[in-house]
From TrEMBL:
PROSITE patterns: CW
Record InterPro entries: CAP_dom, CAP_sf, Cell_wall/Cho-bd_repeat
Catalytic activity, EC: 3.5.1.28
Single GO molecular function: N-acetylmuramoyl-L-alanine amidase activity
Domain SCP: from-to ranges: 78-206
Organism phylogeny: Bacteria, Bacillati, Bacillota, Bacilli, Lactobacillales
Keywords: Hydrolase, Repeat, Signal
Name of the molecule in the record: Choline binding protein CbpI
Signal peptide: 1-30
Keyword Translocase belongs to the record: no
Domain of life: Bacteria
Repeat region (Cell wall-binding), residues: 333-352, 353-372, 373-392
């Protein structure tokens, strides 16, 4: 496990950095600019931020996502990214140094995408439309970065910057397992404008802040901050059939500002991270091969991030041919675990044990599936008896009248 690994980023989707060719042409999108009004809800003031569409498509409806938009330090953000760009140019990683500028329109795009990604945890929209459809005022986005952390903008930039080492290796032909798309977008001289938004959804797993970065080649008319920071309800188009599912991942409002479902207060953090995800109502096992994700540590606890940004929770997962179990919040578990009617043992590294196990002075036998055995069992040609607790009977007479020796073998 990599004790230096931290936080959580999701792979960049970019017509430039992934395809490596050309510029995406602008598409005709019927969209209104973001309009801001202020409403008092339950005694608190909220900025009401409109969707980029005024009318919904068939099978969709407008929903508002409650949260808080953090106020960006625009100059500090631009200075940091441009320092990264200058470094890349000086080291020959890009053909030229082109400082990136702020775009109000792309910031508005990032507003919507940060709110949506706090729910989907992916490069997906709640409407199932293409993410590039989140364009205000006819502007358009060419690339998107997403990140999750507890602090916001500058940490997200550093998360993306951490991919530099793998990017440099990949340029030399070396095989790398990590992502590099975020870093590529940061340094791409063809991407000359950007907007950044950080959204704190009170229902988000582990209390993470979602950061979205949108890139383009035009300002869309303004290079100023968009405003509208603080408590907000960001409206967006959502698939009508999935509203109730989305309502478990965010506090939602309908178009009349009426609450959808039961609203949840902000999750509290314990140490660096904590959160409660609703447990699944089914048993799931997943086989995740080598190179399909990364271990992440928070304090003394571990979780596993898959390359698509998801993570196993409330389930077994096979990682590099070793079985682990993750609780309903996604934390790797250790010690005794009851799953269904069977008991399993996960050692200090989280690995599921099989075979003989000595714990607190007693011997137990875990079969090939990891399940603890009770009663009579035959192991390597010899018979043993384990009580209902799983503890092996030693040098005694079993409840059904048979003698076992000091090793637990029937004699």
């Amino acid at each position: 496990m990599d004790t230096k690994a931290k936080k959580f980023t999701l792979a960049t989707i970019s017509a430039l950095s992934l395809l490596g060719v050309g510029i995406v042409t602008s598409q005709s999108v019927a969209a209104n600019d973001r309009l801001v009004s202020t409403q008092a809800i339950n005694g608190q003031s909220y900025n009401i931020l409109n969707s980029e569409v005024t009318s919904t498509s068939s099978g969709t409806t407008l929903v508002g996502i409650e949260g808080t938009f953090l106020t960006p330090d625009k100059q500090a953000i631009l200075d940091r990214i441009n320092a990264i760009r200058k470094e890349a140019a000086d080291e020959g990683l890009v053909t030229s140094y082109v400082p990136i500028k702020w775009s109000t329109a792309l910031e508005k795009t990032a507003f919507v995408r940060a709110a949506e990604a706090s729910v989907t945890r992916h490069h997906k929209r709640l409407s199932n439309k293409d993410i590039w459809s989140a364009w205000p005022s006819g502007n358009f986005s060419l690339a998107e970065n997403l990140a999750w952390n507890y602090d916001g903008f500058m940490i997200a930039i550093n998360q993306w910057y951490e991919e530099k080492a793998d990017y440099v290796k990949s340029r030399s032909g070396a095989s790398v397992s990590g992502q590099t798309g975020h870093y590529e977008s940061l340094i791409n001289p063809e991407l000359t404008y950007m907007g950044l938004a950080a959204f704190e959804n009170p229902v988000t797993q582990n209390g993470w802040i979602t950061i979205a970065q949108s890139f383009g080649t035009a300002s869309g008319g303004s290079e100023e901050l968009a405003g509208g920071y603080g408590k907000a309800i960001q409206y967006t188009e959502a698939n009508s059939s999935q509203i109730q599912t989305f309502a478990t991942k965010a506090n939602l409002f309908d178009k009349d500002l009426k609450a959808i479902g039961t609203h949840t207060s902000k999750k509290t953090k314990q140490g660096k991270s904590n959160g409660t995800n609703k447990p699944g109502f089914f048993f799931q096992m997943q086989d995740i091969g080598r190179g399909m994700g990364f271990w992440r540590q928070s304090g003394s606890r571990w979780w596993f991030m898959q390359l698509d940004g998801s993570y196993p929770y409330n389930q077994w997962a096979k990682l590099d041919n070793i079985w682990y179990h993750f609780d309903s919040s996604g934390w790797m578990q250790t010690g005794w675990l009851k799953d269904g009617k069977a008991w399993y043992y996960l050692d200090g590294s989280g690995a599921m044990k099989t075979g003989w196990l000595k714990d607190n002075g007693s011997w137990y036998y875990l079969d090939g599936s990891g399940a603890m055995k009770t009663g009579w069992m035959k192991v390597s040609g010899k018979w043993y008896y384990a009580y209902s607790s799983g503890a092996l009977a030693l040098n005694t007479t079993t409840p059904d009248g048979y003698r076992v020796n000091y090793n637990g073998e029937w004699v």
